[in-house]
Design brief:
The radius of gyration is 22 Å and the shape is elongated. An eight-stranded mixed β-sheet has the order 3-2-1-4-5-6-7-8, with helices on both faces. The protein folds into two domains: about 5-165, Rossmann fold (3-Layer(aba) Sandwich), CATH 3.40.50.720; about 175-265, Orthogonal Bundle (ProC C-terminal domain-like fold). It is of the alpha/beta class. The chain has helices at about 5-10, 20-30, 45-50, 75-80, 100-110, 140-150, 165-175, 175-190, 195-215, 220-230, 235-245, 250-270; strands at about 10-15, 35-40, 55, 65-70, 90-95, 115-120, 130-135, 155-160. Helix 8 packs across helix 9 (about 195-215). The protein is built from twelve helices and eight strands. Strand 7, helix 6 and strand 8 form a beta-alpha-beta unit.
């Protein structure tokens, strides 16, 4: 649902690449009037130019929301263009990885309401999950507005503090790559057991997608779903004895992988 605040005052989208375009598409599908949206992008796509949004035009005097969706390395050049909206009632939402709330406050002013949001790549098909955290100036109403906008590309979750974003990066931000690699390795394992490559990949893709959907929709926990599939002394148990080995199994590997991604996120955030 698009808020009256946005329809009255407008929304500015800074950057309309893959994530910005996914969000914009979701908003329009939810009924947002394109005339309420101002896009700032040096190379707008043909789609953006064709849908009736205001592209690189003079901005509204008092937008309800500025959503920042540029790459982190472009932030230093792009953000000062919006400095005049800082320290007002305009809510800034950032989906740029690695740019802290304090970095926004340094440019826009400490009294600017800022929400950091971290979606992941399945947002491109409306199946993402976005973690959000606001600064001290962001009200409950601001957070609800940010959640509503990010819900256009999937689920949302509120964090307790900004430091948790590094762990979010390790789990859901980088996580799709882990799953894609699992599909690769599962298919390759099938090939080594005699399956044709195309068949093995199709089986692996459908199995991972179906199991993920079942895990989301079922009332059972992931642990219980695993138990449900595992017959005593059966084929699944034979495989799980390898995957659940205390020292060499998947839990040990995943713990190390998420820890490495979390640390890299911390290092990048600290410059």
């Amino acid at each position: 649902m698009i808020s009256k605040n946005i329809s009255d005052r407008g929304l500015v989208l800074l950057g309309c690449g893959k994530m910005g375009a996914a969000l914009l598409s979701g908003w329009l599908e939810q009924g947002m009037d394109p005339k309420f949206v101002w896009i700032l992008d040096p190379k707008p796509s043909e789609w953006v130019l064709s849908i009736g949004v205001r592209v690189n035009e003079m901005l509204p005097d008092d937008p309800a929301v500025v959503l920042v969706a540029v790459k982190p390395q472009m932030m230093g050049e792009a953000l000062p263009r919006l400095q005049r909206f800082g320290s007002t009632t305009t809510l800034f939402i950032s989906v740029a990885a690695g740019t802290s709330i304090s970095a926004f406050e340094d440019v826009l002013g400490r009294s600017t309401p800022v929400v950091r949001a971290m979606p992941n790549t399945p947002a491109a098909i409306g199946q993402g999950i976005t973690a959000l955290i606001g600064n001290d100036r962001a009200t409950d109403k601001d957070l609800a507005e940010a959640q509503s906008l990010m819900a256009a590309v999937g689920q949302t979750i509120l964090l307790h503090n900004e430091g948790q974003l590094d762990a979010v990066t390790g789990v859901s931000g980088s996580g799709p790559a882990y799953v894609f690699h699992m599909i690769e390795t599962l298919a390759e394992a099938g090939i080594k057991q005699g399956l044709p490559a195309v068949m093995a990949m199709r089986l692996a893709q459908a199995t991972v997608a179906g199991a993920g959907a079942l895990a989301v929709q079922s009332d059972d926990s992931a642990e219980q779903l695993r138990i449900n599939v595992t017959s005593p002394n059966g084929t699944t148990q034979a495989a799980l004895e390898i995957l659940m080995h205390e020292k060499t199994g998947l839990q040990s590997l995943m713990t190390r992988a998420v820890k490495a991604a979390t640390k890299r996120s911390q290092d990048l955030s600290n410059g």
